[in-house]
Amino acid sequence: MSEQIPIEAFRSGLLTVLEEVFEQVHGYVLDPGTSLFETLAMVSAAEASRPVFPGAGNLAAQVNHTRVYLDAFVTGLATGGAERPDWPGSWRVGPVDEEAWADLIAGLQAAYEQIRAFAGSFEGWDARFIGGAFALVAHSAYHLGEIRQGLGVLRASGPVEAARAGT
Question: What's the pLDDT tens digit per position in 63-82?
């Protein structure tokens, strides 16, 4: 005989872990002050514009790709997966100024809020949707790790001003 988890218990756990990855650490998987939005608040547009290494994408592209993924999740729910996002295009982000960097972060914030709203009200949590929720958390946490690691590499490689000629 199998027991079912009440939807509210699943929803609460999902929202808590999403909040940890994106907004505020609760101690499940991250160290204090290392959520995605806390990390991005410490990144300048100049840092976000620099490729982590020659031929690699920049942090702005990581943010854009993560936003596209969240948007695709919401769109996929509405269309049954009929629309396919432009994954290669999600990585094509060149240098950004402070305004464009703020816009990328705001776009990510808006997509995240859509995900939270969906998770907070959805009632049909079957195996497919629960799997999607796990994928959403894992994918977002992966890109948070990429951003944090890339930021460490950029900051260890020297001042932004010295590397501007390469961007």
Answer: 999 999 999 988 887 677 76
Question: What average pLDDT does this structure show over 44-49?
Answer: 97
Q: How much is the pTM?
A: 0.89
CATH architecture of 7-166: Up-down Bundle (1.20)
Exposed e or buried b per residue across 89-105, where buried means at least 16 C-beta atoms within 10 angstroms of its C-beta: ebeebebbeeebbeebb
3-class DSSP state for residue 50? coil
67, 111 Cβ separation under 8 angstroms:
yes
Which pLDDT band holds residue 99 (cuts at 50, 70, 90)? very high
Closest CA to 69 of 51, 40, 89, 55: 89
- The residue written with tokens 């195996």 in the block is 127
Report the half-sphere exposure of 52 (CA within 13 A, side-chain side): 15
Strands (E), 40-153: none
Domain ranges of the chain: 7-166
Residue that has been written with the tokens 């942090």 in this structure: 59
